[in-house]
Design goal:
Immunoglobulin-like, 2 domains, about 450 residues, alpha/beta, 8-stranded mixed β-sheet, about 30% helix, Aminopeptidase
Amino acid sequence: MLTGKKAFLLFLLASVVSLSGQTIMHHDSKITGMVNELSTNNLKATVQKLVGFGTRHSFSTNENETRGITAACKWVKGEFDKIAIATGGRFEAVWDTFTVNPEGRRILKKEQMINVIGRLKGNNKEDKRVFLVSGHIDSRNGSANDTKIDAPGANDDASGVALVVELARIMSKYNFPADIVFTVVSGEEQGLYGSTHIAEKAKEENWNIEAMLNNDMVGNSASSGNRIEDNIQVRVFSEGIPAFETDRMKRERIATSGENDSKSRQLARYIKEVGERYVDNIEVKLIYRSDRFLRGGDQSPFSRNGFTAVRLTEMNENFDRQHQNVREENGIKYGDVIESVDFEYVRKIAAINLAAIANANLAPGPPVNAAIEVREVANNTKIKWETPGGTAPDGYYVLMRETSSPVWQKKFFVKGNELMLPYSKDNYFFAVQSVDKEGHESLPVFPAIARN
C-alpha cells in the first residue's frame, strides 16, 4: 500500500506526463490586479442608483431629474465624464440619441431613444481592433408599454449596466493597445433598438470589432420553479451558423465541418478558458444557441451585421422577477427588485468579462489566412498562416481538440508560420492563435481549406 507521500509524488508524475505536448498558461499580474479591484460595493451602489429612478422604460423620457430613463442616462453619462476627466482624455463619453418609428406593438409613435457610450482609446494607433462590452439600461414591468408604474429592473438589466460602468472605472486606469467601447443601450425591451443603432453605425464606419460581450441579467442566483440556487456557473450563448453567412462561407463551413467553430464559438471558448483562469469558484458553461427560446439579446444585431458577439447571462433564471409588476400574491414575491440580486455573482461575471477583454486586447492580433492542407491523404496535419499586422507575435499556439470535444484540449507552441502535427486532420479540429512574450493569446482562428 502506498504511503501518503509516495502517492502524492506518483500523482505529480502522472500530472507531468499528462501535460506533455501542452503549454501551461501563466497569469498576468496586471490582469489579476484589475480583477481584484472589482468591488461588490460599487456594483451594488450603481444598481441602487439605477433602481432609484423608479422606471427606466425607454419612453419614460421627461424633464424630471430623479425619475425616468433620461435621468438614469444622464447619471451614467456623468459617471463616464468623471472617468474622462481622470484619464486626461484617453476616455471619451458620448451621449448618443436616435429616433425610432412606430411599429404598432411596442412603439406606438415616433420616439427618441438614448445610448450612453464610453470609449477607452488604445495607445497603439496602428492597432485598429475594437473590444465592446454592453448592458441595457431600459427596464419594464408586466406591460411592455407601461411608462408610468415602477419598473426597478435591478437584475434586468441594471446588473449588466453596473458591470459595464465598473469595468470602465477600472480598465480606464490602464493602457491597452486597442480601443475598448463600453455601451449602455436603451430600447432592448422594445426590440433591441439601441444595440441595433450602434451595430449599424459600427458597420457603416468600419469598426474592426474583435469581440462584443453582451451582459444581460447577470445577478440572479436563485431560480424560479425548480428553486436551484447557483452562483458558481454562468452561461455564454454563441451562434453556430453565422447570422450573416454568405454562400461562400456556407461552402467553407460544409467543407471543414465547421458548424461548431464560428467566430462566436471561438470567442465563447476563449471566455471560458481565460475567465476560469483568472476567476475562482465559477464555471463558464458554453451554450450552443444564439439565445434562449422566446427571448433575444443585444448581441444579435451585432451578429447580423457581421461582428463576433456573445451573450453572458445567469445560469438559472427567476421568471417571477422578470417583466413583472412589483407585488406579492399567495406568498410569492414578484418584480425585479434589488433584494434578488447576488452582487458577489455579478462581481465574478464582471471579472470574467474583464479578464477575457484585457487578455485579448493585450495580445497581438489573430493570425491571418490560417489554412489546413488537404491535398493528399495522410495521417498528419499541416497548418499554415500569415503574420497579423500591428505588433508582431512572439509565436503562435496551434490548438487541437477531438471532434466531439467542446473545448480545446492541447496547445502546441511554434515560432514560425506553419506546423506539421502527427495527428490526422480527419480526427481532430484545429485552430491557431497569436501569443506575445507575456503569454497573452489572441482569439483563435479556425483554418479554412488551403487554396493552391
